[in-house]
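Late entry, written up from scratch paper. The run itself happened at the end of the previous shift, but nothing got recorded in the book at the time, so transcribing now.
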Amino acid sequence: MTLDRLRQNDQSLIALLSDRLSLLRALELPSLEAQIANVAPLLAEAGIPESVWAGVVHSCHTTLIPESVTNHVKPRQITIIGGRGRMGKFFKEQFSAVGHNVRVLEQDDWEYADQLLNQAELVLISVPIKYTVDVIQRAAKYLASTTALCDITSIKTQPTQAMLEYHPGPVMGLHPMFGPNIKSFLGQKVVVCPGRNENSFQWLLDFIKSQGVEVIACTPEEHDQMMVFVQATQHFLRFSLGVFLAQTRIELDRSLSMSTPNYRKEIDILKSLFSQNPNLCVDIMLATEERCQAISSLANTYSRLARLVARKDRTALIQEFENTQGFFKEEKHYSPTLPTIPKKDNQRDFEPQMHFNK
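Output as recorded:
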């Protein structure tokens, strides 16, 4: 009887999935994020993990990706500088999988730079933040004027300015809003900062969109301002929590056995963070003076609230909570104002440190 009911349920699910695919085909596809968020309360009420629904949504999206996009790509000549790093490898795999010709320029390959860069239609720079500007300058002299040049660094103002200064051809800044642990572009976001001759990148943007990426366009300056909060302070917050948990020597598996869904999700994020190269996390926090200042301000907030807890000042803590409730209830928030950091004339944010020395 139980097996019969299971079979009937499966038949019903299959019919519903067929209907869902038909409906999605008739629509302009909603974002994956929206499709997941719209039913979050229903999933919670039914006790179904969001990951189960996310799997359904992602699979439906993959099914609807036009074969003409994925199977009939015009092969492009692509060179990835730093292509043996984890993010570089990811992009190489994604490009190669659909038929693009991808070559890699690494630290010991500069004697071959002319042949690796001059014929490329796209040069993608995937090196650590502190080396990006210098690598752009070094690579630019080998590029044809028609070569599309972009970087995937997590800051955008200085790299975009450098690309515009040193390369007369098409320029665009990209920031993939994900780490190298993912298996595909599906369900991810990429921030795009146009620089020059954006049409030269249309095939690239069409490709990543076809793979399930949501593209967000903004200026390099807006990107860097937002990343102070979206990325730098979040890394510090989780970096601090991870260090704290390690210091306490908490029995992690035991804590997970009696945890809430949010705690499990947070521990998964921490595990992902601390599985990465430490340089990546630290470079993201230290990339700009604005990030360092914001992290310092966040730490001061922690200290102020911790003092209220130490004093058991219930009234003050409730007041802090209510003040913050007002912020999150606002329908519109103004752009944050970051502290202005004085600079000396002609001072660069990145001192010359050539990464790929030959």
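The two ends are 72 Å apart (CA to CA).
(Scratch paper discarded after transcription.)
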